[in-house]
Amino acid sequence: MLHPTRDVSEVVGIIERWASGHRKTLLVRAEDEHRVPSCVEPVPADELAGRADALISIGGDGTMLGALRMAVRDPKPVLGVHLGRLGFLVEVEPPDLPRALSRLAAKDFTVESHACLACDVCGDDVVAFNDIALVRQPGSGFVTATLAVDGQRYGYYRCDALVVSTPTGSTAYSYAAGGPLISPAADAVVVTPSAPMAGISRSVVLAPEESIRLDLRPNSAAVAVEMDGLVIKEAATEGAVQIRYRRDAGRVVRFDPQRYQERNQLKLSLLDLPFLPDQLRELLPEELRRERDQRELEPPC
């Protein structure tokens, strides 16, 4: 899986050379065929996960989420290679990739299971590993929707956006809207309104066994529906979103869970600091600072 816009040629070259030396076959989505060497086999996107033993995501968290969604019907280990800016899901930096690939082939890794939200959005089935959101369109009023849990109506929302997230997604849109941080080891669903004007004004944390239903009210403005940040409906004026929590829907490769957790704790601590990027550099541990400086000094390929 390739980031849609970033230059991935350096990382693809590392993977291709490793695969050639270890007699491994590489596949890529047919639409990305022009971005990889001719020895990489293009396949239809809906066949890729079924034919692969593992997936490699080259990009940031968004690319990683796309890889997880691609394999949701037949979960495969997903290795994340970091080309993004912050990245809570990805673990491996490009210089460490050859060793990571060898460990992946030798099955020398642990698997971090991720839950998803299995959603019926106005009759369409979608899955979200971070969140699903109902979002107002600028100038069109507010999102007005009712919340029902296991068929019991709880109340209504009138807000700029309504975000339903997994524990993984609790650090994303829900967090930005004032929602709580949920441990990735927990099983829970968080419903968070952004800029609430009336109705329920706080986050609601629900059990994974509970089914959630959001119904647009007749007086709601047209809303966009986002799945993991991707718009799947642009101007819904009626209908319902039904959501169920699904455990073990994604498998993320981890080589050093402790070091990964420490890095994420640092990233979370930086989110609320009102500093510019060059100021944040001075707050990084020496190891991360050296890695960052080394990447900036390396000449482009």
Automatic annotation (TrEMBL):
Function comment: Involved in the regulation of the intracellular balance of NAD and NADP, and is a key enzyme in the biosynthesis of NADP. Catalyzes specifically the phosphorylation on 2'-hydroxyl of the adenosine moiety of NAD to yield NADP.
Residues involved in NAD(+) binding: D61, G62, N130, D131, R158, D160, A195
Compartments, as annotated in UniProt: Cytoplasm
GO biological-process terms attached to the record: NAD+ metabolic process; NADP+ biosynthetic process
Cofactor requirements of the protein: a divalent metal cation
PANTHER family on file: NAD KINASE
Protein name, per record: NAD kinase
Catalytic site positions: D61 (proton acceptor)
Family, similarity comment: Belongs to the NAD kinase family.
Catalytic EC class: transferase
